[in-house]
Amino acid sequence: QVQLVESGGGLVQPGGSLRLSCAASRTIFSMFVLGWYRQAPGKERELVATITPGGRTNYADSVKGRFTISRDKDKNTVDLQMNNLKFEDTAVYYCNTYQAVHYWGQGTQVTVSP
Q: Which pLDDT tens digit goes with each residue over 39-63?
């Protein structure tokens, strides 16, 4: 059974920072690509960033230079450090892995507002 458990998120002012964390089993963490997606109200779910077991990263153009995805081998977590947050970053953020089908965490709300 694939379980992805997110933590972090919340309310932040524009220009602020937040850190999201996704806990996965050791097997998933060590063998599969993990990533973060987001879905804003009325919009489709979109890719934010991914990281391979070897540490190779990929980012959406909209977050390059502001967000950093990383892996913590001791905790089996994939973290998303979000800096210089903008109104348009407001969304529910989902942790994801793909093994023939997509698996999703429960989602965590990020709201950027004064």
A: 999 999 999 999 999 999 999 999 9
CA–CA distance, 101 with 16 (Å, rounded to integer): 34
Strand locations in the chain (E): 5-8, 10-12, 18-23, 34-39, 46-51, 57-59, 67-72, 77-82, 91-99, 101-104, 108-112
Q: What is the pLDDT of residues 74-100, one digit of tens each?
A: 999 999 999 999 999 999 999 999 888
What separation in angstroms does the CA of 1 have from each of 4, 18, 53, 98, 104?
Answer: 10, 29, 19, 13, 12
Nearest residue to 38 (alpha-carbon basis) of 57, 20, 56: 20
Do 86 and 77 meet the contact criterion of CB atoms below 8 Å apart?
A: no
- Report which of 80, 108, 112 is spatially closest to residue 94, judged by C-alpha positions: 108
Query: What per-residue confidence (pLDDT) applies to 113?
Result: 95
